[in-house]
Amino acid sequence: GAGDSATLRRSGSTTGEGTLRRTGSTLSGGGDAKANPRLVIAAVAANDPSVEIVDFSGNTMFSIKHREYAKELGLALAGNTVVKEVHLKSVDLDKVDAQAIMEGLVNNKTVVLLDLEKNKIDNEGAAAMALLLRQNCTIRELNLFGQAGNAFGDACLTAFVDMFDYNVTLTKII
After folding, report:
1. Whole-number Cα distances in Å, 63 to 18, 42, 47, 67, 130
2. SS3 state of residue 168
3. What is the pTM of this model?
4. Are 174 and 143 in contact (CB under 8 A)?
């Protein structure tokens, strides 16, 4: 189905459009082939020079195994020098998953956009992310909009305000 997608967008397309979408095995038997999260994460871990955008938004396979895949993706991003954007919208991530991904991004120097919209990251998880963002001076945009049932409170706000004493690169938080 349309929600069962994971995408590698490759640069250097011969079509002149600047990006080329590459997909792998089908997840639901639908018409379009969709990439398996494990294959995409392996490409990130291998530092595939053509993989600049990773998008698991709405991916059912990722959602089902969010704990496993978030940890693997965090580890893969830790050594990656190519990926610029990570989109993980609506894949059931919680505070443990967010921390695993952020730990991988602490020393990453290429990811500039992290989209975690519509997940289950709570106040404590977002505050922990802010603490880790002190050490990452590459991410410019962070999307935490629409976390299920979780309004961020004063402790989270304080953590982000304090983060800006260390990180002036993050200029957009949604």
Report:
1. 29, 18, 24, 9, 24
2. coil
3. 0.81
4. yes
Q: Answer with the residue of higher pLDDT: 114 or 151.
A: 114
**Rounded (5°) CA angle 165-102-146:** 90
How far apart, in whole angstroms, are the C-alpha atoms of residue 48 and residue 3? 25
Q: Could you give the CA distance from residue 149 to residue 168 in angstroms, rounded to a whole number? A: 29
Say which amino acid occupies 121.
I
* pLDDT tens readout for residues 14-23: 333 333 334 3
Q: Please give the full DSSP string across 36-97, using - where no structure is assigned.
A: -HHHHHHHHHTT-TTEEEEE-TT-HHHHHTHHHHHHHHHHHHHT-SS--EEE-TTS---HHH
- Cα–Cα nearest to 105, from 124, 83, 120, 127: 83
Q: CA-CA distance, 52 to 20, in Å (whole number)?
A: 11
The closest alpha carbon to 93, from 133, 140, 57, 128, belongs to 57
Tell me if 166 sits within 8 A of 135, measured CB to CB. yes
DSSP state of 166: T
Contact predicate 64/25, CB 8 Å: no
Q: What is the pLDDT of residues 108-142, one digit of tens each?
A: 999 999 999 999 999 999 999 999 999 999 999 99
